[in-house]
Specification:
This protein is α/β, with parallel strands linked by helices. Helices cover 34% and strands 16% of the residues. It has 2 domains: 57 residues, no CATH class; 98 residues, Rossmann fold. It contains 5 helices and 7 strands; from the N terminus they run αββαββαβαββα.
């Protein structure tokens, strides 16, 4: 069986282990990172080296934990509230410290749309407020982002754990969406 798999992989991958399908693919030993083959002009410049499309190729994301700000670090009871942050959720600092102490090479990345530049006209001010809030409450972080980065885990109050089966999950997803729309009307 291993010979069959090896033969197949050789047929669909180049010498670097990258899939040749449409010029995009993943390395067998790094299914999280995607690479693009160099164009003819890039081949001359890069001497046939791959162009890295995403830092995930370097497995940087293997050492990140993304934690949502709103509803996970602070209570978000009052919603957006003109950008004001609520109270810290109990045990937040201790839990983040415990993650760091247990996995000393993990980077703690705070995720918030407040740090997004899309549709946000005061991003810099929001990032400054988030930093001040985290520092005031002694909550450790390595970085703040408004982008979904590759990570070991996403800790998010609005997340849904997809089972791999849309038919099974869709009724529950629709139910949650409907409830949240109704709650927003109140």
């Amino acid at each position: 069986m291993n010979k069959i798999i090896e033969k197949y992989l050789k047929s669909v991958q180049d010498e670097n282990g990258v899939s040749s399908a449409a010029g995009l693919g993943f390395k067998v030993d790094d299914p999280y990172g995607f690479v693009r083959k160099a164009s003819p002009s890039e081949k001359n410049k890069k001497k046939k080296k791959e162009i890295i499309m995403d830092e995930q190729v370097n497995n940087v994301h293997h050492h990140r934990v993304l934690i949502d700000l709103d509803g996970v670090i602070h209570d978000y009871i009052n919603g957006w509230n003109n950008g004001k942050l609520g109270d810290v959720i109990n045990n937040t600092k201790e839990s983040i410290d415990d993650i760091r102490n247990t996995f000393n090479n993990v980077k703690i990345i705070i995720f918030t749309t407040r740090a997004s530049y899309k549709g946000n006209d005061n991003t810099e001010e929001q990032i400054k407020n988030v930093k001040n809030f985290l520092e005031k409450n002694n909550i450790y972080y390595d970085n703040i982002t408004g982008e979904k980065l590759g990570a070991l885990i996403y800790i998010d109050d609005n997340g849904w754990r997809f089972s791999g089966n849309w038919k099974k999950d869709l009724p529950q997803i629709k139910e949650i969406i409907g409830k949240r729309i109704e709650e927003a009307k109140v």
